């Protein structure tokens, strides 16, 4: 089974798929090669999932930029979830800086 993700908003559809290497067959006669085969499979799986995550992130970033541009064209001011200005991440950065200064 290949890792996959799909998102279908009303006006947009995206599908992301990666092909995985086949799962290695059991190697009862040589446990060392079986471990090596499984390790190689897991490396391929990790790489595929990382690539898939990168694709999804790129798609979502482009989608946010499109929404932001459409909002600016319509004269809509961006708001965060609480209805305030969109300053996502700023508080977290400030907290991290304070922790670094204290630590």
Query: How many strands in all?
Result: 2
Overall pLDDT level:
75
The H/E string reads EEHH
Largest sheet: 2 strands, antiparallel
Structural class: mainly alpha
Helix content: 40-55%
Q: List unreliable stretches of 5+ residues.
A: none
Number of helices: 2
* Gyration radius over CA: 22 Å
Give the termini separation. 45 Å
**Mass-distribution shape:** flat
- Spatial strand sequence of the major β-sheet: 1-2
Commentary on this structure:
Helices cover 54% and strands 8% of the residues. It is mainly α and 103 residues long. The protein contains two helices and two strands, in the order ββαα. Strands 1-2 form a two-stranded antiparallel ribbon.
């Amino acid at each position: 089974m290949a890792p996959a993700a799909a998102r279908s908003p009303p006006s947009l559809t995206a599908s992301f798929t990666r092909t995985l290497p086949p799962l290695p067959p059991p190697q009862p006669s040589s446990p060392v090669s079986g471990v090596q085969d499984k390790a190689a499979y897991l490396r391929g799986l990790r790489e595929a999932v990382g690539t898939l995550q990168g694709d999804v992130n790129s798609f979502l970033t482009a989608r946010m930029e499109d929404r932001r541009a459409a909002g600016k064209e319509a004269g809509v001011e961006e708001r965060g979830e609480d209805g305030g200005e969109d300053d996502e991440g700023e508080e977290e950065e400030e907290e991290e800086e304070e922790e670094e200064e204290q630590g």
